[in-house]
């Protein structure tokens, strides 16, 4: 009697723990195949949003540093525009580039890793320091 069980994990550590437990309890009666890594469209969309938010935060911090250099303070954003978003590496369809199974686990993980970048432009209001001094007086 043979049976095949497919399990989808979203946590690599949990996958390793379950595989270790099955191997420990069932011994040689169980065969665990190499994992197939893939990204759901929702996960890639979440990554894109996180990268965009991080890019806006970086832009704001840089603008604050420039304002400090000139003795000004950064005001509210007037315009924020996402200029370009790129993603590279990995695969989304669950099919690694080498289907022969000769890749190591680390190579499979590296092939499945997705990277993203986002370029934004922002226009901020600039406030003079005098406003803060007047409020304190």
TrEMBL record:
TM segment ranges: none
Subcellular location: Cytoplasm; Nucleus
Keyword set, alphabetical order: Cytoplasm, Nucleus
Stretches assigned to coiled coil: none
InterPro entries attached to this UniProt entry: IRAK1BP1, SIMPL/DUF541
Keyword Nucleus in record: yes
Keyword Cytoplasm carried by entry: yes
One GO term describing the cellular component: nucleus
Gene Ontology BP term (one): immune response
Similarity comment: family membership: Belongs to the IRAK1BP1 family.
Protein name (record): IKBP1 protein
């Amino acid at each position: 009697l043979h049976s095949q069980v497919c399990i989808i994990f979203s946590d690599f550590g949990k996958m390793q723990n379950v595989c270790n437990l099955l191997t420990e309890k069932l011994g040689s009666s169980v065969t665990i195949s190499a994992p197939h890594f893939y990204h759901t469209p929702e996960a890639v969309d979440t990554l894109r949003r996180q990268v965009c938010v991080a890019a806006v935060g970086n832009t704001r911090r840089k603008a604050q540093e420039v304002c400090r250099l000139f003795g000004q303070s950064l005001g509210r954003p007037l315009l924020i525009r996402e200029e370009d978003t790129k993603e590279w590496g990995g695969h989304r369809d669950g099919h690694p580039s080498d289907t022969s199974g000769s890749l190591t686990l680390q190579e499979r993980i590296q092939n499945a890793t997705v990277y993203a970048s986002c370029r934004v432009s922002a226009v901020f209001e600039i406030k003079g320091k005098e406003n803060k001094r007047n409020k304190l007086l």
